[in-house]
């Protein structure tokens, strides 16, 4: 292992940047927090002071021109992910970009092209792939314990979980969509990643917007903007047919009249099934002609791949990325087709999903 210190820069000094990226990159001995940038310079200054980051910028181009950086985190609103990631790659900097990789598959694909040209790495911030449960499930499924997988369910439903009514999250131009592009990219991604990201054949579904008028459904701690735009869906429901014959149904909502929030991935196969419901992992099968449920006792001390250390290892020693940019294109292609189906109220076929990236744009 190379012992070079990587010079790190952060772009977009908001809540996720601090909670996730800075708190993790600061713990890595081979990373030097070198620079931070936010158009709102006060956000950048506050974090620079707290985390002892020497250089502060209000413009990411200036930061990338002036600093010799090895990697950056891109933690801005979604519509800037492609523009900033591509610029960083052109400057020869590796990119850890938050989810979604971009606001549509075309932009995501441009990031992949810039990555290939630069010879650098791009990882999407898909933290749910790195949990103890997800790592165990991936191994279990890859080992064939489920038999033939025929059905997958994925979802994340909240009672009051709008990430700030009237903020950039509810503005289609800034976010690219609503709950589907916010929570869907986490749990639909996890489900499809676990089963090996098969090619989709068709998708259908619906989107609803029922909570745009109220601030009472904001997520705890998230301030809304009463005058802000809300032109995206707060609920997304869909069904995907995969080319291998398996099916996927999913449900995502920021707000709904349910008793409790819930996250779920359930994968059903001919020999067994698995469920990860609100973080609780169970295996379902048969033993001695009897149905059994197994609760694996995962070793809490197991050395898991940490998303941040993993990315530095990928940069320094060529370790294979767990969440490469190409996976972001796959997901955004599915989401683009889903939105088209939902707006047109009819199923949409993936003509040739690898080559046919759809650009579809509409809003409430
Ligand atoms: N992986 C996760 O679990 C997770 C969780 C939350 C958010 N996210 C993602 O992280 C990203 C940021 O979300 P957030 O909740 O931190 O939002 P936020 O609004 O708290 O922060 C965004 C920051 O970007 C700054 N910004 C805007 N334009 C900029 C520009 N041109 N240059 C530099 N900075 C700019 C804003 O001033 C703000 O400080 C989003 O893409 C979101 O989807 C991921």
Automatic annotation (TrEMBL):
Domain of life: Bacteria
SUPFAM superfamilies named in the record: Glyceraldehyde-3-phosphate dehydrogenase-like, C-terminal domain (SSF55347), NAD(P)-binding Rossmann-fold domains (SSF51735)
Transmembrane segment boundaries: none
GO molecular-function term, one example from the UniProt record: nucleotide binding
Residue ranges of domain GFO/IDH/MocA-like oxidoreductase in the record: 136-274
Domain Gfo/Idh/MocA-like oxidoreductase N-terminal: 6-125
Name of the molecule in the record: Putative dehydrogenase
Organism the protein comes from: Neobacillus bataviensis
């Amino acid at each position: 292992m190379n012992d070079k210190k990587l010079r790190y820069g952060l772009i977009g000094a908001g809540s996720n940047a601090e909670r996730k990226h800075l708190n993790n990159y600061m713990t890595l001995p081979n990373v030097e927090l070198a620079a931070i940038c936010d158009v709102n310079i006060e956000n950048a200054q506050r974090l620079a002071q707290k985390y002892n980051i020497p250089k502060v910028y209000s413009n990411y181009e200036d930061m990338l021109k002036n600093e010799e950086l090895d990697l950056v985190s891109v933690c801005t609103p979604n519509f800037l992910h492609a523009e900033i990631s591509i610029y960083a790659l052109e400057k020869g900097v590796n990119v850890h970009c938050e989810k979604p990789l971009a606001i549509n598959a075309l932009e995501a694909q441009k990031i992949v092209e810039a990555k290939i040209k630069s010879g650098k790495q791009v990882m999407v911030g898909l933290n749910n792939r790195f949990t103890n449960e997800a790592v165990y499930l991936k191994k279990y499924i890859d080992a064939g314990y489920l038999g033939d997988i025929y059905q997958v369910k994925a979802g994340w439903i909240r009672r009051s979980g709008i990430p700030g009514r009237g903020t950039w999250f509810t503005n289609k131009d800034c976010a690219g969509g609503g709950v589907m592009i916010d929570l869907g990219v986490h749990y639909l991604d996890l489900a499809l990643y676990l089963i090996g990201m098969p090619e989709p054949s068709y998708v259908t579904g619906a989107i609803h917007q029922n909570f745009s008028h109220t601030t009472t459904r904001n997520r705890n701690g998230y301030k809304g903007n009463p005058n802000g735009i809300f032109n995206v869906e707060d609920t997304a429901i869909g069904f995907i047919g995969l080319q291998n014959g398996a099916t996927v149904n999913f449900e995502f909502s920021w707000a709904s009249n349910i008793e409790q929030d819930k996250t779920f991935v359930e994968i059903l196969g001919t020999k067994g099934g698995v469920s990860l419901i609100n973080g609780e992992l169970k295996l379902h099968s048969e033993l001695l002609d009897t149905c059994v449920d197994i609760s694996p006792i995962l070793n809490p001390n197991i050395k898991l791949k940490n998303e941040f250390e993993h990315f530095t290892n990928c940069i320094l020693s060529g370790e294979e990325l767990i969440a490469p940019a190409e996976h972001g294109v796959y997901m955004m292609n599915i989401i683009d087709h889903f939105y088209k189906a939902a707006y047109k109220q009819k199923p949409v076929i993936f003509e040739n999903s690898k080559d046919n990236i759809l650009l579809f744009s509409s809003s409430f």
